[in-house]
Automatic annotation (TrEMBL):
The keyword Lipid metabolism applies. It catalyses: all-trans-retinol + NADP(+) = all-trans-retinal + NADPH + H(+). Pathway: Cofactor metabolism; retinol metabolism. This is NADP-retinol dehydrogenase. InterPro entries: NAD(P)-bd_dom_sf, SDR_fam. Coiled coil: none annotated. Signal peptide: none annotated. Its EC number is 1.1.1.300. Keywords: Lipid metabolism, NADP, Oxidoreductase. Belongs to the short-chain dehydrogenases/reductases (SDR) family. GO terms for molecular function: all-trans-retinol dehydrogenase (NADP+) activity. The keyword Lipid metabolism applies. It is an enzyme of class 1 (oxidoreductase).
Length: 325
């Protein structure tokens, strides 16, 4: 009886088993979906970098929860295309595209001005947008691009929105950081990487700045009803990886994607830790923390340095002219 079964059948079955096992392992390593079904009717949320990757999936989830979501994006064409798909899927018409280029402080100020004309409240601010390992480049104000977008842009945006967040309490700020912050060091004598620029080093510094900003802001917001936490979403396959050298070659990209497929999260799975930090009731009174896999995690020694956090805040104020706006 068994001899009658052809050899190709065994090969086919083995192939399906390997593929099925691969998907099971990938799902396991990627973590669970955030399963809290709370509605966000009439809640106002801003998500930066919302037209692709993690930001797109966060917006999709929030829209299904009936939130009013403002997609703060640089590319309006991509934003509108994404918005239309999410509106059709969620049946939520309260999803909006608004221009906000984090590499331009004028664009950030214009975004905030428009937002305040249209909305009186802001319940959740998700600082998600970012760039990684890009060639040396500068924002419109002459700030190194990774530090300028990942930290300075969100620093200015958040501070300009604090008054609205305070009148909307309880409200939350979520800063999307990275485990890469543990490799980071704030270069006190070369913060803008003018003397030396190494893409990975500059990225790690910007992600460390996210943590230091989170902790210092949490101290300043004590007693206001506004909480702020940072989150590492995991290693996620998104467009943020496009500047890595190996991704510049088709074969290299294929090899990396094939070898790491099981271990790298999809954008949907990458969005889950961000949603947890933004929504979970257990975090109502938690602030100034860093989350990995939905748990408070240790940060680097550099990220615990209060003196550097205060120094970075002072420099960030100076570079954004925050005291003069």
């Amino acid at each position: 009886m068994f001899a009658a079964v052809s050899k190709p059948f065994y090969i086919y079955s083995a192939g399906l088993t390997v593929i099925g096992t691969g998907y099971i392992l990938k799902d396991y390593f990627s973590g669970d979906l955030y399963d809290n079904e709370q509605k966000l009717t009439d809640k106002v949320v801003i998500v930066t970098g919302a037209n692709t990757g993690i930001g797109k999936e966060v917006v999709r989830d929030l829209a299904k929860r009936e939130a009013k979501v403002i997609m703060a994006c640089r590319d309006m064409e991509k934003c509108e295309s994404t918005r239309l798909n999410i509106v059709m899927e969620s049946k939520n018409k309260y999803v909006y595209c608004r221009p906000c280029d984090l590499a331009s402080q004028k664009s950030i100020k214009d975004f905030v001005e428009q937002f305040k004309k249209e909305h009186k409240n802001l319940h959740i601010l998700i600082n998600n947008a970012g760039v990684m390992r890009c060639p040396k480049n500068y924002t419109q104000e002459g700030i190194e691009m990774q530090f300028g977008v990942n930290h300075i842009g969100h620093f200015l945006l958040t501070n300009l929105l604090l008054d609205v967040l305070k009148v909307s309490t309880p409200s939350r700020i979520v800063n999307v950081s990275s485990i890469a912050h543990k490799r980071g060091k704030i270069k006190l004598d070369d913060l803008n990487s003018d003397k030396n620029y190494e893409p990975g080093e500059a990225y790690a510094q910007s992600k460390l700045a996210n943590i230091l900003f989170t902790k210092e802001l949490a101290n300043k917001l004590k007693g206001t009803g506004v909480t702020v936490n940072a989150v590492h979403p995991g290693i996620v396959r998104t467009e943020i990886m496009r500047h890595m050298a190996i991704y510049q070659h088709r074969l290299g990209k294929w090899l990396v994607d094939s070898l790491t497929w099981i271990f790298i999260k999809t954008p949907r799975k990458g969005a889950q830790p961000v949603l947890f930090a933004a929504l979970d009731p257990s975090l109502d009174n938690v602030t100034g923390e860093y989350f990995v896999d939905n748990k408070i995690a240790e940060v680097s020694d550099e990220a615990k340095n209060d003196k550097i956090a205060k120094w970075l805040w002072a420099v960030s104020e100076k570079w954004t002219k925050l005291n003069y706006v």
